[in-house]
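Handout, section 3.2

Students often ask what a structure token actually looks like in practice. Rather than define it abstractly, here is a full record for Transglutaminase. The first block is the sequence as you would receive it.
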Amino acid sequence: MRVRHETVYRYPGAASLAYNMAWLTPLNDPQQNCLQHRVKIDPKPRLTETRMDVFGNQCTYFEVHKPHDMLKVVSHAVVERHTGTLDAIKETTWEQCRYRELGNAHQRVRSCRFAYPGPITPALPGLAEYAQVAFVSERPIVEAIAAFTKQIFSEFSYQTGATHVDTPIDVVWQTRKGVCQDFAHIAVSGLRSIGLIAAYVSGYIVTNPPEGEEKLQGTDASHAWYAVFIPGYGWLHSDPTNDMWVRDEHITVALGRDYSDVPPLKGVCYGGGQQHPDVAVTVERISEEDASYGD
């Protein structure tokens, strides 16, 4: 699959300096290979560095040191997905996957950041009980995750504009409205409340146009879902916005504790005034012969 992700900030006045981090490079893991990736930034940064964050994600740091009234960041990537099997864990119960069951000390240290509540994903009253509707005693972890994903999909309404990036999770919990980011946070909070190791995942999903209509360029958007760590297997990803396993339609970019760890782009600028980004994302399937960035 090929991805083009464009973010443009236009400032009312000139900004003198900008310091930014971008999480735009798709991950390499057992289900995915990032074959090609590049980031183009306008105006040209004085400094650009590729870094690995504490969660193992690749991110791009850059600095712009000259006056500018527009900042444009365009990410191009080509990704190959590999559909795995769940046979190895079909008999594993969810209780066996709880953080407290980890016997490996190194694994406990690496996983603890995904096991406890945080400012964005607190342990809300009633959320543990909500999760336990799906996670009943001795239920296989694969069945429980599938049921929990369907539960969120069925009981929460996807409404663009119902929430914003900084909308607290308790508002989403009360209104049962939000977008993919909100549903991922609800899932992560609920899973951690019952002792599981859960991560927020940022990425993309291929969206198909209505039958008979051509796909419009730039109409897709960033996506988000959740993942549960299963000892001996790794991260098992599930998408509550679409009630489906994360498979060939998805591209994983980064895993974090919540959205604030892995936004597509964040930073500071000096001057420029109030600004809001314009974002356009295109995700398309391509043949092996056409595995290039494109324009």
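Discussion prompt for tutorial groups: The two ends are 15 Å apart (CA to CA). How would you have guessed this from the sequence alone?
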